[in-house]
Amino acid sequence: MANVFHGFLGSDSSPPDDTVLPQEAQPSYQDHFPPPPPPEYGDVPQFPAPDHDFPFEDFVEIPGTPPPQQAPFQPFPPAQPYSCGVCPKSFLEARELTRHMKTHNRPYQCPVPNCSSQGFPSGQGRKRHIEAKHPETVPEAQLWYCPVQTCKYAISGFKRADHFQRHMKQHPGFMW
């Protein structure tokens, strides 16, 4: 039998080239990696964790499971139980009908006397109306002026920021 080396790794002495380690001293695969876990679902193959956000089962046929059932074709959308009493619209949820009814009722009225507005479905709509049509009633109302000196809106300005931004598209190259 060949020469057997019994030294430690990292020691000053090194084994000769013809040294054969005994079977129990040789490194093995099991020394570095834990054994694989036993299958938990019998004969069903174990799949790796998906690297996508859609269900993997939709694309793989798993033995012993029935095929997925398709919903029957419906030529019309499902019934919408919440109907408007003023117009023919209907909704799936009560909150949608409540919001829609404000377009008919217009509960937010302009506080300026003799204003010709019909009211507004939201408080934000009323606020926008007051700032645009009655800026004298709002001391903190801001006007947006065009930076192009030859433009008529450099003097009069805009009462709404979205109108100013739309106007500035007519003057390419100007930053505001």
Structural class designation: mainly alpha
On the 0-100 scale, what is the average pLDDT? 76
Main sheet overview: 2 strands, antiparallel
In sequence order, what are the helices and strands, one letter per element? HEEHHH
Strand fraction equals under 5%
Strand order of the largest sheet: 1-2
- Tally of extended strands? 2
Shape: elongated
CATH class type of the domain at 82-138: Alpha Beta
Can you name the CATH architecture of the domain at 82-138? 2-Layer Sandwich
Keywords: Metal-binding, Nucleus, Transcription, Transcription regulation, Zinc, Zinc-finger
GO molecular function: zinc ion binding
Region (Disordered): 1-57
Pfam families: zf-C2H2_4 (PF13894)
